[in-house]
Amino acid sequence: MDLLGSILNSMDKPPSVNEEQKKLIKRQKEMAEKLKNKQKEELMRFRKYVEERIGRFAKDDRPHIEFQALDKVHRAVIHEVAEFGGFIAMSFGCEDVDRYSVVYKKENAPTEDEIAARRNRDGWNEEIAKEYAERRKQQRELEYEQKRLARSSAQNSNNATSKQSNPAPITEAEIKPTFNYKDKYAHLIGQEAALEAARKTETNQSYGFVPSKNKKDVRSIEQTLADIQAKKRLKLQQQQQEQQQRQQEEEQQQNTQNPETQKADSAKNSSLASQPPTSSSTSSSTSY
């Protein structure tokens, strides 16, 4: 608290307002409030004026009524009252210059010509309506003529393409070659070349060592998979047979070596049996 108090004391105090300044501020607020209330009263009077005029317009036979050029706020009031009463309100002209509002009855909605004329700042009356109707008629005729020309040009182009694709038949009298091509190629085809003399070309049935017919695999996927598995099984069987053969060969080699060892063992045993007994054995036998 001491630090905060010291900081606040070191700061400058706000400037004091004297009585004259207070009175001036109060007077300005009162004037702004009066101006605001005056604008509200003016808008309320204008709204009543618009409601009365549109009410009279609803009872008579006029197709539309025009208001003078007004600002955006007053035009918004006109549009709000017209829409609430079931009418059509539209504004024309340039903003902040001569933009005005027009209210129409729904059964007498504005035409395209009237909207275009008012947007072009030409106004709207019977003479202008006739002028715009004539313009619209000329525009339609021009568009129709352009479409007709486009269709005719497209038809002509189609006819030209059809003639090019299907030309008229040419008679034999019109064909007059300047020279006989056989004279130019006489050294190749002879003077009496005909269809019988031409050699019929055929495609080679085999390329390399394998005929071309065998190079095309017409088997299905299931059949090819089954063939692959069969090849694998056959390969395994061949490997097993080879292993068995090798084992049999090893056993035969061992059997051929065993008789020689047996003969050597029997020879050793016979030599031992033929030797005479030792002295120890004789002495033991005579003692008894």
TrEMBL record:
An example Gene Ontology molecular-function term: nucleic acid binding
Protein name: R3H domain-containing protein
Biased composition range(s): Polar residues: 152-168
Segments of skewed composition (Low complexity): 237-246, 270-288
InterPro entries registered for this protein in UniProt: R3H_dom, R3H_dom_sf, SPAG7
UniProt entry tagged with the keyword S-adenosyl-L-methionine: no
Transmembrane regions: none
Region (Disordered): 148-172, 202-221, 233-288
Organism of derivation: Glossina pallidipes
Domain spans labelled R3H: 44-107
Sections of the chain in a coiled coil: 18-45
Record keywords: Coiled coil
